[in-house]
């Protein structure tokens, strides 16, 4: 399967094969580089500072479906220390059509695009990152599946990411991310307990 950048995309098992999705070429499993929480699967682009994260989070029953992607976006902003005024902005939230998705068990699915001004490794330097989120709501499993695509737009020269900013070879695209969302498939609901 061709990726938007011309490389080969491949289906990858997630969470021990309980889920799978088609990832773009050059997606390196970050668990080979550092410790990753058990509720996340993290993939880093081999040449850029882009990343893809599939995360299992607690279903927030008090949050309406139409507001849930924004809720998680703000939660990520807080984790990124980007929650002060002007450090994050949501630019769009749309409901994904269930007919386009392989994950039929979800009650609703949402796509959000926004920006955050974040620093890596508690640095002072701030990078501007476009954050694309896919949210799959699974109330029957008390779980939200959150898929995020971190796509740096402006890297501060003082950031530890500045070196990779010069090597933006064959970056992932929004089309690559959409294909991941559309192909996310549940194989074993036992994943949710």
What is the string of SSEs from the N terminus onward?
A: EEEEEHEEEEHHE
Q: Which sheet architecture does the biggest sheet show?
A: 7 strands, antiparallel
Estimate the global geometry from the Cα principal axes: globular
Number of strands: 10
- Please tally the helical runs, counting DSSP H or I stretches of 4 or more residues: 3
Are there runs of 5+ residues with pLDDT below 50, and where?
A: 2-6
Helix content: 10-25%
Task: Describe what this molecule looks like in 3D.
With 193 residues, the protein is α+β, with helices and mostly antiparallel strands. It has helices spanning 65-79, 162-165, 174-183; strands at residues 10-14, 19-23, 27-29, 40-45, 51-58, 88-95, 108-118, 127-138, 143-154, 185-186. The strands form two sheets. Strands 3-4-5-9-8-7-6 form a seven-stranded antiparallel β-sheet, sandwiched between helices. The longest helix has 15 residues, at 65-79. Mean pLDDT is 84; it is low at 2-6.
Keywords for this entry:
193 residues; alpha+beta; seven-stranded antiparallel β-sheet; three-stranded antiparallel β-sheet; 15% helix
Give a brief description.
The chain is an alpha+beta fold. The protein is about 15% helix and about 35% strand.
Give the helix/strand layout:
Blueprint: E1 10-14, E2 19-23, E3 27-29, E4 40-45, E5 51-58, H1 65-79, E6 88-95, E7 108-118, E8 127-138, E9 143-154, H2 162-165, H3 174-183, E10 185-186
Antiparallel strand pairs: 1-2, 2-10, 3-4, 4-5, 5-9, 6-7, 7-8, 8-9
